[in-house]
Amino acid sequence: MLPHKTKLHSIKRKLVNNITAVISLILVTIFLTVDLSVDSWVENQFNKSLTNKANYLKTLVKDHAGKLEFDFAGEFMSEYEQANPSEFYQLWHEQHTFEKSDSLQLYPGVDLPNIDIAVNEFRIIDYSLPNGEAGRAMISHFIAQQADDNTADSGHFNTMVLTIAAPTAALNKVLIIIDVVFVLTCIIAVFGVRYLVIRIVNRDLYPLNNLNEQIKQLDITETAQIINSDFKVEEIEPIRNELNKFITTNQQLYQNEKRLTSDIAHELKTPIAELISLSEVALRYPNDERISATYTSDILAISQRMKTIVNNLLLLQRAGSSAIELTIEKLNLSAFINNISNELQFKHPDIEQRLQLDIAEDLLVNVDKFCLHTILSNLLDNALFYGERQHSVNLQVTQASDKTIITLCNTLATPLSGQQLEAIFDPLYQLDSSRTNNQRHGLGLAIVKSLCNLNNFTIRAENKADSRLALILTLPN
């Protein structure tokens, strides 16, 4: 059984269909309205033609002092002659046939319809003609016109009923032609509208298609690649700008990853090389007491250094991937920092003399204890290691209603450049003074930065007067 394929939604297809449907509906409505109006006008013209003929025939009926005459000349209205029996008329006086058209004489015993209507009224009805064709009949009840030679007014008026009938074949043919023309015009208009809509939509979607083509050609492994636009579109520019930010960020991450991979290899290469060298020397001189006496302790020291690097890398990875579960608790910051100071005393025996604290005894913060402990331990360790020993390290804490600010300052031999300030939190970044120290790996401040991002803290470094470096940590309350 073939897997079911979900049909993708298409902006272009939906746009074309919706615009075509709306415009087509408007066109069909207009064409239908015009068609009905034209049909009505054509029928009215046909009925008007019947009315004109009936009015003309009425004028041919004269009342000469009660004597009725019908003065009809067939040469002027040949449609009523036997030679061309296409139309018919019949006159009645007092319900008796008064006159018939010659065309109706061809059908003995056939009378046109006569219905009872008021005087000076008329009615038009559909009627099957004597020759079998479909037609229409007009029945009119009127008063015969008084002749000019009437000398006396008797007060009596002779009423007549006139019925004329005409075929509707020509009318129906015209109506069919009109309907066909309007239907074809409507269909052509709908397809024409769809064609134009597709052309317009394709043209207006060109910037989007162009953006897609540019995205296909992107390669984040190359630097300084962005999506350019010669023709700016208001709706697409925000997308383009965000994509460029995303591309730039990923290019930086890719470059950082390359650098980090290289630095990790470099950091592990040195202790591995030391292990290999020690092992080769021990194998070559197995009986040399000078080598065997320190071999195991040297191996252990190198292994512990490698373990420290790996543990810090794992902590950096966990902090960056949000794998650490935060447990918020209330801490007394003064006591907490004093405990960290005591823990660092084995690495910095003079920490009590060098570290100057400016913090209220009852200052409380709501934080994750592990994260804050790791952050402050690394900050203090770095400040004490890089700071000039003859100068103190100052830690000041200020608290506002919405945040707590921890500022740690130490004095450097040489102030950091702007590039160094930007790179100080990068993984495995080391100042020249720490590259010869086997215990410094350039991971501490990178871990601090990742944990700050995880806890919504902010950390920044800036130069102060007298070659002092300030690391400013902000905790939201």
UniProtKB/TrEMBL annotation:
One Pfam family named in its UniProt record: HATPase_c
InterPro entries (UniProt xref): HATPase_C_sf, HATPase_dom, His_kinase_dom, HisK_dim/P_dom, HisK_dim/P_sf, HssS/ArlS-like
Membrane-topology annotation of the record: Multi-pass membrane protein
Highest taxon above the source species: Bacteria
Compartments where located: Membrane
EC numbers for this chain: 2.7.13.3
Keywords noted in UniProt: Kinase, Membrane, Phosphoprotein, Transferase, Transmembrane, Transmembrane helix
Catalytic activity: ATP + protein L-histidine = ADP + protein N-phospho-L-histidine
Ranges annotated as spanning the membrane: 15-34, 174-197
Listed name of the protein: histidine kinase
